[in-house]
Write a structure and sequence with these properties.
With 106 residues, the protein is an alpha/beta fold. Helices cover 34% and strands 21% of the residues. The chain has a domain at 62-106.
Length: 106
């Protein structure tokens, strides 16, 4: 799941072996991008909603979610294990208050 657009996220997901991908869809007019989204921007509250829907389709599946921004905290709380990676100091403090794991990747 990514807020990034569907120009490249599905290809990355396939390369990593994921069976399903959720990302922000772009709108096309034939072979041309028209500059608009074809659905909701998968960011913030929408990412949390999408994760809840995914969990509903796959009950009992344990979910680990990663994020790096304050806008990711909501969906990290929906997961069984939410992990903030390379968050800003302010976001890290908020994540820690929510009981989320905080990591620094180099």
């Amino acid at each position: 799941m990514s807020a990034s657009v569907d120009l490249y996220v599905p290809a990355i997901a396939r390369a990593l072996g994921f069976a399903e991908v959720i990302c922000t869809p772009l709108r096309w007019r034939g072979d041309t991008l028209d500059g608009a989204l074809a659905g909701p921007n998968c960011r913030g509250a929408e990412k949390g909603r999408a994760l809840k829907e995914l969990r509903g389709r796959h009950p009992g599946l344990e979910v680990t979610a990663y994020g790096n921004a304050v806008s990711d905290l909501g969906h990290l709380c929906v997961a069984d294990r939410g992990v903030l990676v390379n968050g800003s100091p302010r976001t890290r403090r908020a994540a820690e208050r929510l009981g989320l794991t905080c990591l620094t990747w180099r």
